[in-house]
Amino acid sequence: MALIVNGIEAPPPADPRVSLLDFLREHLHLTGTKVGCNQGACGACTVIVDGRRVLSCLTLAVQADGASVTTIEGLGTPTALHPLQAAFVEHDGLQCGYCTPGQICSAVAMVEELRRGVPSNVTADVAAQAIAATREELRERMSGNLCRCGAHNGIIAAIEDAFGLETAA
Amino acid sequence: MTPFTYARADAPDAAVRLGEGGARFLGGGTNLIDLMRERVEAPGALVDVSGLSQAIEETAEGSLLIGAGVRNTALAEHGLVRTRYPLVTRAIVAGASAQIRNMATVGGNLMQRTRCTYFYDVEGSRCNKRSPGEGCDARGGFNRIHAILGASEACVATHPSDLCVALAALDAVVHVEGAGGARTIPFGNFHLLPGETPDRETALEPGELIKAVELPPLPIAAHSRYRKVRDRASYAFALISVAAALRVEGGKVAEVRLALGGVAHRPWRAHAAEAALVGAPASEASFLAAADAELVGAVPLRDNAFKIELARRTIAAVLSDLSEAGA
């Protein structure tokens, strides 16, 4: 078995204590994924596993054995930015940038959840099949990614722009 | 973390076999991995059961049988859950963050441990739940988030789950399997009050594994709510939460389900309030009186007396909402 990280196979670590976060950073040297709180409270370590956004700090690397992992390095490169990375630059979706890889991985998977009709805590009718991409919905759905610089307005604007979401204010 | 062995099991019997000898079952890991990193827990072996059944099936009797491996997000977005048991969807989406809901399993949700800060503070605090007999530093400490109902001298911790509050209101049934075979546990008997043994949190025997949670058919659940009051609008544990379903006939309460979160060592089914409500006029006065009937035994600690009034008002507000929305 192996993890598939950004399309490349990587054998799992021998020590099951290694988190997916440390595996990505220290074993594969993919340092785009950031260590924030390391206890599931900040979202800085968000990566996409089999299409779902998850916290790599609370995932053991061995749990992701056989799964497909996408990190920020798998979304875009300095010469070929993901459209959301370009939109973050355009809309000042960051100041220090530390939470940004987690914000972008989270938002890419969040938009899929929204399109699939997954309800959120601010969805008025949870039985409704289609959910409008209001700004309130985007804020609630991104609440698992903290930004201590307070760049949230730019982050939401970048998400709206990159994914062509028409939101009411 | 201290060293441990890791094995995967995708079927309950294999998991039970692998778990013999004191292994801990690992679901999404959102609580257990954190507890291991904080050294609150130090199991020598993990059996990863996140690959257990991820099916949500309707039974011939009209129940919904939810596999223990179902992720919180998958349960919240399931069509039958959204229409028949909207309080379940509401409770889930009120909890944690989307990332954590994508990881967390239904079985693991029932096994969550308290977020009492003294329980987590291994080096600095005494905790009877973590080290039986040691004492409780929460009782005389900062206890704003702690219990007002059902606490003991030994422990004033609260149960952290949102989903479990909804499951308590619905009389869910927990399907478990152990070395001695399979059995079912009514949800109301699953989580324990602390008493003298706060380290014992559930009715599971050592080595027993949750394999499914069953939601019985309950027509009034289609008209239900979950409201959570917390310190910030998202991504925070409940100070108080209320799960409720209501049916009104001719201006009187015909049927009601009510459960509270954030108040006790287990999800708190409000039987006294329910008894006070049935047959009473569907009015705010009745709702407040029912809340008082439930909270008459509430005992505040130094910092959490506000929870009693908050619970009272939240119960009345949720029942009023349901009543006005055409129960």
From TrEMBL, chain A:
<keyword id="KW-0408">Iron</keyword>
<keyword id="KW-0560">Oxidoreductase</keyword>
<dbReference type="InterPro" id="IPR006058">
    <property type="entry name" value="2Fe2S_fd_BS"/>
</dbReference>
<dbReference type="InterPro" id="IPR036010">
    <property type="entry name" value="2Fe-2S_ferredoxin-like_sf"/>
</dbReference>
<keyword id="KW-0479">Metal-binding</keyword>
<dbReference type="Pfam" id="PF01799">
    <property type="entry name" value="Fer2_2"/>
</dbReference>
<feature type="domain" description="2Fe-2S ferredoxin-type">
    <location>
        <begin position="1"/>
        <end position="75"/>
    </location>
</feature>
<keyword id="KW-0001">2Fe-2S</keyword>
<dbReference type="GO" id="GO:0016903">
    <property type="term" value="F:oxidoreductase activity, acting on the aldehyde or oxo group of donors"/>
</dbReference>
<dbReference type="GO" id="GO:0046872">
    <property type="term" value="F:metal ion binding"/>
</dbReference>
<dbReference type="GO" id="GO:0051537">
    <property type="term" value="F:2 iron, 2 sulfur cluster binding"/>
</dbReference>
<protein>
    <submittedName>
        <fullName>(2Fe-2S)-binding protein</fullName>
    </submittedName>
</protein>
<dbReference type="InterPro" id="IPR036884">
    <property type="entry name" value="2Fe-2S-bd_dom_sf"/>
</dbReference>
<dbReference type="GO" id="GO:0042597">
    <property type="term" value="C:periplasmic space"/>
</dbReference>
<dbReference type="InterPro" id="IPR002888">
    <property type="entry name" value="2Fe-2S-bd"/>
</dbReference>
<dbReference type="Pfam" id="PF00111">
    <property type="entry name" value="Fer2"/>
</dbReference>
<keyword id="KW-0411">Iron-sulfur</keyword>
<dbReference type="InterPro" id="IPR012675">
    <property type="entry name" value="Beta-grasp_dom_sf"/>
</dbReference>
<dbReference type="InterPro" id="IPR001041">
    <property type="entry name" value="2Fe-2S_ferredoxin-type"/>
</dbReference>
<dbReference type="InterPro" id="IPR052914">
    <property type="entry name" value="Aldehyde_Oxdr_Iron-Sulfur"/>
</dbReference>
UniProtKB/TrEMBL annotation, chain B:
<dbReference type="Pfam" id="PF00941">
    <property type="entry name" value="FAD_binding_5"/>
</dbReference>
<dbReference type="InterPro" id="IPR002346">
    <property type="entry name" value="Mopterin_DH_FAD-bd"/>
</dbReference>
<dbReference type="GO" id="GO:0071949">
    <property type="term" value="F:FAD binding"/>
</dbReference>
<keyword id="KW-0285">Flavoprotein</keyword>
<keyword id="KW-0274">FAD</keyword>
<dbReference type="InterPro" id="IPR051312">
    <property type="entry name" value="Diverse_Substr_Oxidored"/>
</dbReference>
<dbReference type="InterPro" id="IPR005107">
    <property type="entry name" value="CO_DH_flav_C"/>
</dbReference>
<dbReference type="InterPro" id="IPR016167">
    <property type="entry name" value="FAD-bd_PCMH_sub1"/>
</dbReference>
<dbReference type="InterPro" id="IPR016169">
    <property type="entry name" value="FAD-bd_PCMH_sub2"/>
</dbReference>
<dbReference type="GO" id="GO:0016491">
    <property type="term" value="F:oxidoreductase activity"/>
</dbReference>
<feature type="domain" description="FAD-binding PCMH-type">
    <location>
        <begin position="1"/>
        <end position="220"/>
    </location>
</feature>
<dbReference type="Pfam" id="PF03450">
    <property type="entry name" value="CO_deh_flav_C"/>
</dbReference>
<dbReference type="InterPro" id="IPR036683">
    <property type="entry name" value="CO_DH_flav_C_dom_sf"/>
</dbReference>
<protein>
    <submittedName>
        <fullName>Molybdopterin dehydrogenase</fullName>
    </submittedName>
</protein>
<dbReference type="InterPro" id="IPR016166">
    <property type="entry name" value="FAD-bd_PCMH"/>
</dbReference>
<dbReference type="InterPro" id="IPR036318">
    <property type="entry name" value="FAD-bd_PCMH-like_sf"/>
</dbReference>
